[in-house]
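Its record is quoted verbatim for completeness.
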Amino acid sequence: MASTNVTGGCPAAMKASSNGAFQHESPLDFALPLIILQICLVVVFTRLLAYLLKPLKQPRVIAEIIGGILLGPTALGRSKVYIDTIFPEKSLTVLDTLANIGLLFFLFLVGLELDFAAIRKTGKKSLLIALAGISLPFILGVGTSFVLSSTISKGVHQIPFIVFMGVALSITAFPVLARILAELKLLTTDIGRMAMSAAGVNDIAAWILLALAIALSGNDSSPLVPLWVLLSGTGFVIFAVLAIKPLLGYMAHRCPEGEPVKELYVCVTLTLVLAASFVTDTIGIHALFGAFVVGIVTPKEGPFSRILTEKIEDLVSGLLLPLYFASSGLKTDVTTIRGAQSWGLLALVILTTCFGKIGGTVVASMLCKVPFREAMSLGVLMNTKGLVELIVLNIGKDRKVLNDQAFAILVLMALVTTFITTPLLMAIYKPARRGAPYKHRTIQRKDHDSELRILACFHSTRNIPTLINMIESSRGTGQRGRLCVYAMHLMELSERSSAIAMVHKARLNGLPAWNKVERSTDQMVIAFEAYQHLRAVAVRPMTAISDLSSIHEDICTSAHQKRVAMILLPFHKHQRVDGAMESIGHAFHEVNKRVLQRAPCSVGILVDRGLGGTSHVVASEVDYKIVVPFFGGLDDREALAYGMKMVEHPGISLTILKFVAARGTLKRFDKGEEDEKEKKEKEMDGEFLRELMNDPRGNESLAYEERVVESKEDVKATLKATSKCNLFIVGRNAAVASLVNSTDCPELGPVGGLLSSSEFTTTASVLVVQGYDPAADTRPLIEEDVDYEGSSRDISDSTV
């Protein structure tokens, strides 16, 4: 492989691999072991920085830019031994080539994320904001270029320099913006939607301007050369639309949902990316454009684009892309910024960028009647830079448009503007979590004809059949009280979540997940859609995308905004074939515990042992036996109220097991007097049971039994005797002593802990219910306001 020319001659090309240290050969003198060491060093160093910056809510690109700079001549590279050993001049060609291969495929993924159909539907408001956010900083960038060319960039070719400066100052990083919005839980807000739409338009405009800048920066002095480059580039785009797009569409069409994508199709697509990159590099507008265009013309519908992303993303983002930041960092020498003039120019560039982006966006937003605080927040968001900014600067440096000092100033500008985005946004835009107070926060209510709203959460398709069967069982006869269910898919905001997946899922949050024009291909949505068409139940799929440490906030705020009476959560364990309970992750266990603490309504945790089997049971075939063990207390009353709602269904029979202590109380079988609180609860239990006995819903499907027990063993024996049922509904804080010696799930309470344990062999699912207690709701996530404007909107959201 050819090496890089250096002063004083051309060093010998590096061989690929060594014979080993025992043959007295240093592996660092050979290309393969050296590039392996470089990759390991860069990945470990940038990941460590990302971990350190995580508490500051900084996107990973910040850590990668800083890591690249620190590995270069600014910090570690000041040591001649380090730079000659780890990043010798003769190894940089291999490093740059591998980094650019990774960059090609990353730009292909960026193209996949940009949906032209969605951009075409961008409203006039977002379009005006995007154009203002490009135009003003571009004009100010042109003005700044004259200042730089008269000071630190003397003798530079003026026209390419002007265009590069304009592009560098006007870019907005679409993927970085999506990540910041998602981490701050703003992706589904009005400001988040506007920012994403405007950033998509901005991204397209920036690439067109960059193509123009590259065309103008050629070495040939003939004015016709840039014209030929632009015409050829336009011809390539037309060819991609007319020839490449139909081919990719043909392959995507032959990849139905639920079936694996053929290896041949993946291979053809990746080869097309490389071939297109070769063509655009030959034209003279850089290889990256070919990959980006192929990404844009790839069909976004169906599993094809998703599978491509999954196959490429981890390798590219995890291993190859950090090399590009290292390569860029090796060219960045911050120490070239010396003296008052250089630091003054850095301040000028940063202020110009911020003023142009934020000022242009704010003015356009105010013209669109966006409130000032939201307008300022939009401006800060649109000021986000990222990888595309570094690409522009590196191309400018490689083409001798930017010298070392100008390059370092612009890299620091990109770093500073992105770094300040999150703290500025958190300071300016604090969306008040307000909501209108609502009445029906529990299943238990006097008005049985009022609408019952449930927020049902699920992690994966595994939870869907039981969830739908629970909904079917809860709908009653349809004559008393309409049922409205919000089905929320809980998705972890992981590092590998691509922007398009986040945006696509977020658009479904609180809105119908299907429409008349384009039917969804999401299996989960289809399941709920099919069920809704069969039953008189309003089912609205939603998506919560968040870090699992804070996703409980999304659940609880959505529950309040949708005014639900109960949140249904899947248990963090599932049953194996041998009957043992296996955990799906400690993080989901913590989610359930946090929801129990902060919920604005009742909560049910569903221990799924296959209620109704692995598929949806039709109404005529529903034949469930439900048992409600009643020990007393708020949670038991709520559990029984839910059971009474379910027994309205003609295919369900309900058995109420009222436990009575032979002596003492159920919490103290052998001694002790009842305290005032226990007496009051007992009175409320008695009154509740009397009302149930007089309830017209208490038909022949309802059975009431009292069991006198003398010890915990009697309670356990009674429960085991009824374990042939399909579903237990139990109160979380049932008024009974703990029935198990130890448990890793104390949040399920004494009865739920026993019924959900592996030692309790049964096929019956268990619903553990916590009733809403206003006295315990001391730290609400939403501030209630009777004048809140969103109240009417929430009501209309319940209809489909």
Summary: The chain has a mean pLDDT of 83.
